[in-house]
Write a structure and sequence with these properties.
The protein has two domains: 120 residues, NAD(P)-binding Rossmann-like Domain (Rossmann fold, 3-Layer(aba) Sandwich); 168 residues, Dihydrodipicolinate Reductase, domain 2. 34% of the residues lie in helices and 28% in strands. Helix 5 links the parallel strand 5 and strand 6. Helix 1 crosses helix 8, helix 4 runs parallel beside helix 5 and helix 5 runs antiparallel to helix 9. The longest helix has 20 residues. It is globular.
Length: 334
């Protein structure tokens, strides 16, 4: 087996803190090069992680024939441009979410994939975590009966105006950054697409980003997602899945630490004081490592791509509908 040789497009924190260590720890890839618009910073990061090559611009990384795949954690407004350029340079791509700023932009990535024959994956690491696989197994087995409602929350505090999440012109805001997780996991659970969306959005009067966005998605057969996302509230995340015979609560659904056990609570609902609940715990694991190893297998043609880029396009359509609804005040169709 030949390991995938990764090139890291920028020195973004998500790459330094999560993805580069995950590739190094994994079994399927190596980090062969890193690029930054700041050559000195790229060199420092390369030295820190033992990366053999660094570049002072992004194009040089794409032009490197020794690179098989690119990880793109650039700010949201640059996802499409540099993912398309990477595909056209003959590289596979793992691109951070959201894949674009809207579905129309995302179509350019679909076209580039079809034109080049290279593969592209949107980096929703949560879908590779065993806790979500276990949840779907529990639901498919009928453990809590028919599921009709999901409640999700993903909030944390980001006040620094220089943080990319607080810059509306480059794709900042709560819905793009964290609201996308409740959407993608609800679609994963229901296995279908919502047909209506409505949203309530509060913008920071100084920064201009949506600091709190809540939404309601209507799925076929009456299924619903109710969610909230925020950038200026105390950190919290939770998913509760309600069925006719019980509920499942996911205590750290989106960013569980790789050194902590995950806990899923299954409650029949026979007692409101929690005495009817049982808990399952899953061993610590790095969901970023799982994601990168699966991506490498897909890029080598050894595994099926479970979530093709069309899935990212569908998620983007829902986000578009929510933003439209926040402006119109009425239901919108993805």
């Amino acid at each position: 087996m030949r390991k995938i040789r990764w090139g890291i497009l920028s020195t973004a924190n998500i790459g330094i803190k999560c993805v580069i260590p995950a590739i190094i720890a994994g079994q399927q890839g190596v980090v062969a090069a890193i690029a930054s618009r700041d050559a000195e910073r790229a060199a420092r990061v390369a030295t820190t992680f033992g990366i053999p090559r660094s570049f002072g611009n992004y194009q040089s990384l794409l032009d490197d024939p020794a690179i098989d795949a690119i990880y793109n954690p650039l700010p949201n407004h640059l996802h499409v441009e540099w993912t398309v350029k990477a595909l056209e340079a003959g590289k596979h791509v793992l691109c951070e979410k959201p894949i674009a700023l809207n579905a129309a932009q995302a179509q350019a990535i679909v076209a580039a994939r079809d034109r080049t024959g290279r593969m592209v994956i949107e980096a929703f690491m949560v879908r590779y975590h065993p806790q979500w696989h276990r949840i779907r197994t529990l639901l498919q087995s009928g453990r809590i009966g028919t599921v009709r409602l999901i409640q999700s929350a993903f909030v944390f505090p980001v006040y620094n105006p220089d943080n990319v999440r607080n810059k509306p012109e480059i794709g900042g805001g709560a819905l793009y950054d964290v609201g996308c997780y409740p959407i993608v996991t609800a679609r994963y659970i229901y296995g279908t697409e919502p047909d209506r969306a409505i949203a309530l959005l509060d913008r920071d009067p100084t920064l201009g980003v949506d600091r709190v966005t809540s939404g309601l998605l209507a799925f076929p057969d009456g299924q619903q997602l109710v969610f909230s996302s925020a950038l200026q509230l105390a950190a919290h995340q939770r998913v509760v899945i309600f069925g006719s015979d019980g509920r499942i609560e996911v205590q750290v659904p989106f960013t569980p630490r790789k050194d902590h056990r995950c806990r899923i609570v299954i409650d029949s609902g026979k007692s409101l004081d929690g005495s009817s609940a049982v808990a399952e715990e899953l061993d610590p694991i790095d969901q970023y490592e799982l994601q990168c190893d699966v991506a490498a297998e897909v890029f080598r043609g050894e595994a099926r791509q479970e979530f093709p880029i069309e899935d990212a396009l569908s998620n983007m359509r829902v986000i578009d509908a929510l933003y439209r609804s926040a402006g119109s005040g009425v239901w919108e169709r993805p």
